[in-house]
Write a structure and sequence with these properties.
The complex is a heterodimer. By secondary structure, chain A is mainly α. Chain A has helices spanning 2-7, 44-52, 55-69, 77-92, 97-105, 123-134, 151-158, 181-196, 209-215, 220-230, 238-248, 263-278, and strands at residues 11-13, 21-23, 33-35, 38-40, 137-139, 204-206. Chain A has three domains: 2-48, no CATH class; 55-115; 118-286, no CATH class. Chain A has twelve helices and six strands. In chain A, strand 3 (33-35) and strand 4 (38-40) form a beta hairpin. Chain A is elongated and about 80 Å long. The longest helix of chain B has 23 residues, at 228-250. Classes of the chains: A mainly alpha, B alpha/beta.
């Protein structure tokens, strides 16, 4: 590590736009460094070449990308073979991460059953994804009037992800690192704020009755199915769908009522439905 | 008695085995009568902004203090509280700021230890960096919090309400690998806990029960053990149930002391008192809740540290610093009295800290700039109080930025509390060099 750091001495950037890279040659350590047993006056460029030439680097990068985009990789021989297969894409394409990612995104593994709902959504995916999936509004306000526009980043922070400020150089944690009672309560309460904010003019996240009306069908079954589709697609099963249908067909007194798609029902029950779907365990996963 | 997750799972699916280590949901309803004799509560108060230690515990006999602080310095004749009683600490060469008469009474009663000269090597003068250093007990400021490391060792698998933070966001001190500490943001109004619940549409309160029932049904479904979705559903269900039970429990609290209200003596005193009252509500009603963290902000007094406009910023008994020290002093005393009224005075140790002290020489704006070493207070019946610990740094032997050279590493203070109060292994939490550190205030 120290030898590699010596090779990177002198690296800097111009501290004004467009922040170009610059090498301060007189600050570079021109001595001999020992890196993986090789000795030379290595530069930072040399280090990158040496590291990316190692097969372990290709496997590590592939492993990171799989864990982030596809599913958690296990120690099984099948998974090791999968990682080996994709790491060769990186090596055979002149160390192109672009080609590696392309190969992953069009792979059978990426579209496999195993990849569905196999990762826990990061907080930023939850707070932004909720808005985008529903086609809801986000009004960023102005620098002098940010209002509720800071709710999504603040909520993400309370869920454990201070955006652009990871806890250390290892970056953010993943999956179960996001799951605890405090962060789950924040997830539920963020989605409530979002689903129940009718004010589409002030800064912040909101959803209008008109937008919700567009997804609402003539009966409760079709309506729940439509929202499963919009907010996912999710497929939590028939019994869960029926729980949500029961919600739509229950009045304030706890007694059954017929579902109607009038404005008053949309403003109450469809907003509630959106919140309830966003509180499903399935919605917390990707 | 609210329905709990286990009942739901029994009804829906039979036994579910889970190998993930998740916190135990606090079930409430456990015997609240006498606390166990060995109950050990630890409360941390963060004074954020960098408290001016030299004007909190005042070295009034040191001539250098007055030459460095011709405007801000308190003379011995000025170390008198609003009733004219001296705030000089028992014949010592130090006096408390006159705003802190409540702390003075606790000190005289032997309940307050003052640890002088606390800091760390190569002091960092950035609020954020130095706060991280204190929070992590690591001079790089990186990694988990010191109380988080303690929690991972001692609280794993215990009640999810074993440790609680009251404030705007979870302090880094509680960052941990495995244990997760909830943060409760105080709400204005009659019920400060009101934000800490599963919230539903405020416009349709009549629909709340329907939403809660739906949520409990969908999140108590059974899933395969050892899957993410199972962990998510369990944590989600427990989040709602735990918050509901906490809110229910704290309703049974009866104050044993009168906390500040109605902006008297200041808005800050009311706000800080309310946070400590929340701590009292929690520890008196939830026997498992033993590790608490609260914050009092605003100590960054670069200008107008003393006085008000009316006195042209010269009256040392008034001003921003006096207001905050009064809030601190009154809050701690009220909390102490409340704990005593609930029979818990022997079970609580409280510690204050700030990310740094302030520079010995005053600046031209009736303020002080970022400094290094400062004192801190450790309060409670278990504390060998009414005494000074550590050593006051010299006001003439300063560092290159003309700041104090610390005498006690703050990790020695942490180590004393970890090993003497929390029965933890200080070496594995703070590093082996602090394994046997003992400042002495816990006997």
């Amino acid at each position: 590590m120290k030898e590699v750091a010596r090779a990177f001495t002198g690296w800097n950037y111009v501290r004004r736009p467009p922040f170009n890279f610059q090498l301060n040659a007189n600050q570079h350590d021109n001595g001999t460094k020992t890196i993986y047993g090789q000795q030379s006056n290595f530069s930072g460029q040399d280090v990158i070449t040496i590291i990316s030439g190692r097969p372990a680097t290709a496997r590590y990068l592939t492993w990171k990308l799989f864990n982030f985009f596809v599913y958690p990789v296990t120690n099984s021989s099948a998974d090791k073979a999968t990682i080996d297969k994709f790491s060769k894409v990186y090596i055979n394409n002149n160390h192109s991460i672009k080609e590696l990612v392309r190969a992953i995104f069009v792979s059978d593994e990426f579209f496999s059953e195993r990849a569905f709902f196999s990762l826990v959504k990061q907080p930023v995916e939850l707070v932004v994804g909720a808005v985008r999936m529903l086609g809801a509004s986000y009004n960023p306000g102005t620098p002098n009037n940010r209002g509720g526009s800071s709710v999504p980043p603040n909520s993400a922070r309370n869920m454990g992800q201070d955006i652009f400020a990871p806890p250390d150089v290892a970056g953010f944690d993943s999956n179960l690192g996001w799951v605890n009672t405090a962060s789950m309560l924040e997830r539920f309460n963020y989605t409530n704020i979002f689903a129940t904010n009718r004010n589409t003019t002030n800064p912040g996240v909101s959803v209008s009755n008109d937008k919700l009306k567009g997804y609402t069908k003539g009966n409760s079954k079709k309506t729940v199915k439509k929202f499963f589709s919009v907010l996912g697609p999710l497929n939590p099963g028939t019994s869960t769908r029926k729980m949500l249908q029961t919600y739509l067909e229950t009045g304030d007194n706890g007694q059954p009522v017929d579902f109607t798609n009038d404005d008053a029902t949309i403003d109450k029950k469809i907003r509630g439905l959106v919140h309830q779907i966003m509180c499903l365990p399935e919605f917390q996963l990707n | 008695m609210p329905i709990n997750r286990r009942q739901f799972i029994k009804r829906s699916a039979g036994a579910v085995t889970v190998s993930l280590v998740m916190p135990r949901l606090w079930m409430g309803g456990s015997a609240l009568g006498q606390p166990p004799a060995n109950r050990r509560i630890f409360v941390v108060i963060q004074q954020s902004g960098g408290n001016d230690g030299l004007n909190t515990v005042i070295p009034y006999t040191d001539a250098n203090y007055f030459s460095l602080r011709p405007t801000l310095g308190f003379k011995d004749t000025e170390l008198k509280d609003s009733n004219g009683a001296s705030t000089i600490l028992g014949g010592s060469s130090f006096g408390l700021n006159p705003a802190m008469n409540e702390m003075k009474s606790l000190y005289d009663a032997g309940k307050v230890a003052v640890v002088l000269g606390v800091g760390y090597p190569n002091a960092n003068l950035s609020h954020f960096f130095s706060t991280d250093i204190w929070m992590t007990a690591n001079t790089t400021g990186a990694g988990d919090g010191w109380l988080g490391r303690y929690a991972d060792q001692k609280l794993l698998g215990q009640s999810s309400l074993s440790a609680i933070s009251i404030g705007g966001s979870l302090p880094k001190a509680f960052f941990a690998q495995q244990v997760v500490v909830p943060n409760i943001a105080p709400a204005n109004g009659a019920d400060p806990f009101i934000n800490y619940q599963y919230q539903t549409d405020g416009r349709n309160a009549g629909d709340r029960n329907n939403q809660l029932n739906t949520f409990k049904s969908t999140n108590s479904r059974s899933f395969d053990a050892d899957t993410f979705i199972n962990a998510v559903a369990r944590a989600g269900f427990d989040a709602e149930a735990g918050s509901a039970q906490l809110r229910q429990a704290v309703q049974t609290y009866t104050p044993g002391a009168t906390y500040p209200t109605n902006n008297q003596p200041s808005a800050q005193a009311v706000q800080f008192g309310n946070a400590l009252k929340m701590v009292a509500q929690i520890v008196t009603t939830i026997p498992e809740a033993n590790l608490l963290f609260v914050q009092l902000g605003g100590f960054d007094h670069h200008s107008e540290e003393i006085g008000t406009n009316a006195d042209n910023f010269t009256d040392k008994t008034k001003g921003q610093h006096a207001v905050l020290l009064k809030a601190l002093s009154l809050g701690i005393k009220t909390f102490y009295d409340d704990m005593a009224a609930h029979g818990l005075a022997d079970n609580v140790v409280l510690m204050t800290f700030s990310e740094f002290g302030r520079r010995p020489n005053e600046n031209a704006s009736h303020g002080t700039d970022h400094g290094t070493s400062s004192e801190l207070f450790v309060v409670g019946n278990p504390v060998q109080g009414g005494k000074l610990y550590g050593e006051q740094p010299s006001l003439t032997d300063l560092d290159s930025a003309r700041n104090l050279k610390f005498k006690v590493d703050f990790r020695e203070v942490y180590a004393t509390i970890l090993s003497k109060w929390l029965n933890a292994d200080a070496g594995s939490i703070l590093g082996s060099q602090f394994k046997n550190s003992d400042v002495g205030f816990l006997g």
